[in-house]
Amino acid sequence: MLEGPEGRHAVSVRRLRAGEEVVLTDGAGTGVHGTVRSVSGKDRLEVAVTAVRSEAEPRPVITVVQALPKGDRGELAVETMTETGADAIVPWAASRCVTQWKGERGRKSLAKWRSTAREAGKQSRRLRFPEVAELATTADVARLLHGAELGLVLHEEGSLPLATAELPRDGGIVLVVGPEGGVAPQELTAFAEAGARTCRLGPSVLRTSTAGTAATAVLLGRTGRWA
Description:
34% of the residues lie in helices and 26% in strands. It has helices spanning 4-13, 73-84, 103-123, 138-147, 185-193, 208-222; strands at residues 2-3, 21-25, 30-40, 44-54, 61-67, 88-92, 131-132, 150-154, 160-161, 172-177, 197-200. The chain has a 7-stranded parallel beta sheet, with helices on both faces. The chain has a 4-stranded antiparallel beta sheet with strand order 1-4-3-2. Strand 2 (21-25) and strand 3 form a beta hairpin. Residues 2-48 form the Ribosomal RNA small subunit methyltransferase E PUA-like domain.
């Protein structure tokens, strides 16, 4: 039985009807395939389960540290990174960010990112939704990089092409995407001291809201997770 907000979304928004196939998931690696048996009211449907599927935690885990973009581009970045396959997303208050998350505005913005990740996870039929962490400082990001198997910072002047970087088969990869104004020199220094390497995607410079998605796709292809 599916009811409550998820049931309302299925019945009133997606307009599911008896006989249609559905995939339900807890967002933490377990899901069921089934067929809608009946619909009652505006927020309840009964599903006949045909298969249960469990998905192990992926390896290597890909975490994208996303500097806060302007406007609603942050939600766009979260949506496309989720659909592509990022495992965790960390909003970062970089020194050159125009957008600032403070007080109630910050709490609402974080809630939007988390809601966007959840909805994009459902839309792309993922069994594991990415965790969207609390807003991180540069010191927080440096600690993440220090604890990663591989830390990478996207930078247009990076000498290492992401397409040829040696990648781990296990552990975690932390990828840092800077703001519109770029990663500040002191931030690059802090990240280098934490063991991160600067890398580039290609000859063109992408927006901060699309760079993370493109880089995630490269990593997923090269690690074999898309094989």
